[in-house]
Design brief:
Rossmann fold, 3 domains, binds iron/sulfur cluster, four-stranded parallel β-sheet, alpha/beta, globular, binds 1,3-dihydroxyacetonephosphate
């Protein structure tokens, strides 16, 4: 079947749009109406006028789209597309953790379940975390969840001392500074770019740290011709499209594998995308109360991002 053609036809007939994350396979990124990082995707979902949003990403991202655009039918091509980072922060454990710090506000990374968002004062993404934290007074006590690497990075950049939940992403946390340095030794002219979900030792030697959109912008505009990329492999598709004359080297996750694929992101396929559109399932269906409570911290993030002009 010519999935590309069929998906285009269904999209038109059903007034649907496809939002895709940079970690999706190239074919899906190419057919999407918008490809972006978590912040960009949330902003697009908020302003979408479509009847159907097909979310080519992972579950928490589709949940955010549903929460901020509740009238749209939000489809996730594979319901098993979760996130190890979101899973590292279970509701009951986090509620007990939060209770230990009654005078702290909670800033949660968008990679959380909607349930965790209901316990949060404001949501952030890797694209706005530093500026968002800086928008609160220096003496504001903060719990940051769930990524300890991103939280530690924000603490170092802002000079804050946020209390960190001890969660990680299984894809980024496995990358080592040794592997990055080995590549750098073999390619001394290459610049190192890293996603803030990587370990501190990698972030400290990186020439640039940022969200997927940030990394893409850096590799596009920086004069260097070679980059060592410490994040998931899907981003290389856009990097290569944006800068065909540049070379991108993926940091191998261990000695036998050079494929840092997020197993959840990569569950989505063109066939599943087509079937989701054709059958209008699997659909994100959420409890109204949870949606209402989770919407507040997300809208607060979007509002602060608008004010700070973070797009
Ligand atoms: P971005 O918001 O930077 O795209 O990151 C999302 C993510 O899941 C990283 O692992
Ligand atoms: Fe979650 Fe990590 Fe996959 Fe991003 S790369 S969706 S944080 S498991």
């Amino acid at each position: 079947m010519d999935y590309k053609n069929e998906i285009q036809k269904l999209k038109k007939a059903k007034n649907a749009i496809i939002l895709a994350h940079y970690y999706q396979i190239g074919e899906i990124q190419d057919i999407a109406d918008f490809v972006g990082d978590s912040l960009g995707l949330a902003q697009k979902a908020a302003e979408a006028h479509a009847d159907i949003i097909v979310f080519a990403g992972v579950h928490f991202m589709a949940e955010v789209a549903k929460i901020i655009n509740p009238d749209a039918k939000v489809l996730l091509p594979d319901m098993e597309a979760g996130c190890s980072l979101a899973d590292s922060c279970p509701y009951d454990d986090f509620a007990a953790f939060k209770a230990q710090y009654p005078d702290h506000m909670v800033i949660s990374y968008i990679n959380t379940t909607a349930a965790i968002k209901t316990l949060s004062d404001v949501i952030c993404t890797s694209g706005n975390a530093v500026k968002l934290v800086e928008s609160f007074p220096k003496d504001q006590k903060i719990i940051f969840a769930p990524d300890r690497n991103l939280g530690g990075y924000v603490n170092r950049v802002t000079g804050r001392n946020m209390v960190l939940w001890d969660g990680t992403c299984e894809v980024h946390d496995i990358l080592t500074a040794e592997a990055v340095l080995k590549l750098k030794e073999e390619n001394p002219e290459a610049k190192i770019v890293a996603h803030p979900e990587c370990q501190q030792q990698i972030l400290e030697i990186a020439d640039f740290v940022g969200s997927t959109t940030g990394l893409l912008k850096f590799t596009r505009t920086d004069p260097a011709k070679k980059f060592i990329v410490a994040t998931e492999t899907g981003i290389l598709h856009q990097m290569q499209l944006d800068s065909p004359d540049k070379e991108f080297l993926v940091v191998p996750s261990d000695e036998t594998c050079s494929c840092n694929d997020c197993p959840y992101m990569k569950l989505n396929t063109m066939e599943k995308l087509y079937l989701a559109l054709e059958n209008e399932t699997p659909e994100i269906v959420m409890d109204e109360t949870v949606m209402e409570q989770a919407r507040k911290p997300i809208e607060r993030m979007l509002e602060i991002s608008r004010k700070l002009k973070i797009i």
